[in-house]
Amino acid sequence: MNTSNRFDAAVSKLYTAFHNNTLNPEDCTQCAVGNILDQKDSWKHLTDMHGSVKLNYVGLVHQNLGRRFNGYTPLELLQIEASFLKGCGYRLGNHFCHKPDFIKDKDILFNGLSEVVATLCRLDQRDNVMDCSNLFNYEVKQLAIQD
Q1: What's the CA gap between 99 and 86, in Å, rounded?
Q2: Could you tell me if residue 102 is left (phi over 0), alpha (psi between -120 and 50 degrees) or otherwise beta?
Q3: Do the domain assignments include residue 64?
Q4: Positions of E strands within 1-147
Q5: Containing domain of residue 14, as a range?
Q6: What crossing angle do the helices spanning 106-123 and 74-87 adopt, rounded to 10°?
Q7: What pTM, to 2 d.p., does this model score?
Q8: How many domains does the chain have?
């Protein structure tokens, strides 16, 4: 499979963070985007709320200027982070971000990473490399989740 440089670099950094226990959804330098951006926290100024995919004024300026951070636009970075949080079991809303218990559990972090890789694949218009349904000739069905 042919992948982009930004995809390869992001997955490599996330793999390293996962195995070095330096992946933490509550630390903006150690979350998915923090690791992709080399443990920098400047990306948090692109939005007003943790987990939001809505750019604030600063984020819009960078987006409209065509800025990229390690290959990703500000909006893409917010989408990546939101997918990580959702995969880790966070419930994201317009005015809140509910975090689950045991956020540093390896199984929870792996679920978050799986969602991030799916998002990275979608952003690069690639098939999800984490989807093994083709291997087993199985069609994945969406489950209706009720609160």
Answers
A1: 9
A2: left
A3: yes
A4: 91-92, 97-98
A5: 5-123
A6: 150
A7: 0.85
A8: 1
